[in-house]
Amino acid sequence: MRNIQHIKPSIDFGFGATQKREETYTPVTLWLSTLYNTSAYTFEVLFPPSGGSLQKISDYEYRITYVDSGTYEISMAVTQKATGIRLVSNPVTLTIY
Fold first, then answer.
1. What is the DSSP string of 36-76?
2. Of the candidates 69, 66, 68, which has an alpha carbon nearest to the alpha carbon of residue 30?
3. What pLDDT, on a 0 to 100 scale, did the predictor assign at position 50?
């Protein structure tokens, strides 16, 4: 059994999708699929903020909206509060047209 502090977070756009195409101004939901103790970890979405906005729904659900066309790589960092161990998720790709 692997120690949870070494399990990297997994993110997707829903149902395991790691690539998505969407129109400008359309909110896109990003999901953290790996479960963590929310009182022991902090959560940060790593995304290019230029032309984009982020809305946190919960520690496991986020909405990203871009007003500019382009391709954006998004990932997430989960940091253990007690030790500072930081784990970075898989990248997902969002193409805005």
1. --TTTEEEEEE---TTEEEEEEETTEEEEEESS-EEEEEEE
2. 66
3. 87
State mean pLDDT over 65-79.
97
List CB contacts of 31: < 8 A, sequence separation 6 or more. Answer: 11, 12, 13, 14, 60, 61
Statement: the pTM of the whole predicted model exceeds 0.70 = yes
- Amino acid (1-letter code) at residue 26: T
Amino acid at 2: R
What letter does residue 25 receive in the DSSP assignment?
T
pLDDT for 5 equals: 65
Q: Per DSSP, what are the bridge partners of residue 21?
A: 95
